[in-house]
């Protein structure tokens, strides 16, 4: 008889009454519980609780009874009529509006536009207010089934995010920029941004491409008037790869080739269906297209994480995340930066073009027809002829250098060498009496270096004995060995400094130049700023120029600030509050922290791509390589950004030294190490009543301001240098965690 009673109890529990999904979330949030806490208590995965709250799935015994009991107790504590206003999830900062946690599924009806598609407009997080929470849905509506796909989301409309265009989102892309395709219980599902899940009817890769373009409503509106809409992105999980006949991992030969062979059955399927692949072939980032007809594009991009499409250096463990969470990460990145089009480096370069398309439509001619013409402010549609490049600006092996002797090593008088700092010096006796070495790091340093920078847009013109013009971008052959850092101008006043404790601003290693060398415009302009005369011997200058990178910087800045605000770090914090907020910020939302890492990598990688080197393919020195055919192969722009970034840092170091008498011990790129009496940056940065030294280092999250990189003891620094017998070992390389793995070789 007891067994019968147990069976009856289980039957009752299986139908335990549950409130609608939105009410479940309201009750949890009202009590200050996170999704993780509920999942731990019920011994289920976080994604399971997320599914219960967004209506995607329903609890099953035995968890259903326990979940119902929890909700009943919470309902007694927080009755619906007592909650006059919706409550924000305590686990998610109120400013997070770009792409909600998949657990916090958005509540839009099938026919309404999605949040993600409307968040392509740049949002200034310094001025925008938090977005109001969505109204609580009264009940869960029945699912709406279409012939080809099903929208699995509740039906009440959620408040639009800040920055959404007045006219709403583009209906062509109402389901967001991308989807993660997975297989669950034998069904193919597409996890979109904001918690939306679509049923996928496609049985093959060609059919999947067709479905994506015809019915999925995926993509992203263009960022600039003359530009192109972003193609939809499909991310294929391992289960999806197996379903569609693709290998889960690549063989060593395929990894080396970067693609599966053309003889693979899926590649043949695409060919039979008249789909084409780019020259990259079917690899980790495959582009499948048909030639455009008129203004209509037919192109879908695939991202395959198990083929190492998501570099762990920039995307962390994203490839191992469940589909909904991976869609969230990539969706936030897409809405704030750009739909990924390859590595973060590729996307950084593509963002430049998306903001400055090479062509635009002309005014109507006499017959009323418009034609394609050069878009002012862009780099144009044609690459610079390799033989027209200034020899000083190109890397070794470039075609313009093919007549140089085989083993010739170009010196400073032949080669522009603008790179980031890698400099260190022995500590003074006075510094050794202090207890700590404190590292500070410049936020988004290279992005800040690009802001407002005038760069060349076209080809360079060679000039002999020119008068230096700080507003004219180019490369200048000039002798700066006479600049003495012991006496320089800071502002309008001359100051005396200990030049032996400062790196030269003119070389990456901080060594004083010994004669004429090639420099980018910002470097030469800084010599003039320090109070010294310059007389260039010759130059390659670009009379066609502009602030090409301004929009690029602004979009990446806004993406970075918005995401850091979501993690609890804001632009208006006091120095102490800022340091506290930065402590452990990644643990507040590890997935969102991945987006921060990807944004930073987009900056550095995008600038690096401006001078992409040969990548195998049988290349030999003196021959052109594939990257040279791009209008965006511009080593001069890269050099100018790095030059300005290094100069910006040196300017702050000089201001700090002139005001405090403190000098850096080591510099690596955008990290500077000082000896200090205490472990905090506030122990040596000259703040007065919360105000930083004008023109010096300032704590804050904005690009160009600094954060705490790490602290070690002076004894640690001296022990490490003694252990490796390297008195000038660059301690900035190890200041973060103190781990030294090998002798510093400068690479």
Task: Spell out the blueprint of helices and strands.
Layout: H1 2-13, H2 21-30, H3 35-42, H4 46-54, H5 63-77, E1 144-145, E2 150-151, E3 178-184, E4 187-192, E5 197-199, H6 205-214, E6 233-236, H7 238-243, H8 252-257, H9 265-272, E7 276-277, E8 285-293, E9 296-303, H10 312-315, H11 323-336, H12 344-355, E10 359-361, E11 372-374, E12 422-424, H13 429-432, E13 436-442, H14 445-450, E14 455-456, E15 461-464, E16 474-479, E17 487-490, E18 493-496, E19 516-520, H15 521-529, E20 538-541, E21 545-546, H16 550-566, H17 575-582, H18 585-588, H19 590-609, H20 635-660, E22 666-668, E23 671-676, E24 706-713, H21 714-723
Parallel strand pairs: 3-6, 6-9
Antiparallel strand pairs: 1-2, 3-4, 4-5, 7-8, 8-9, 10-11, 12-22, 13-23, 13-24, 14-21, 15-20, 16-19, 16-20, 17-18, 22-23
Helix pairs in contact: 3-4, 11-19, 12-19, 15-20, 16-19
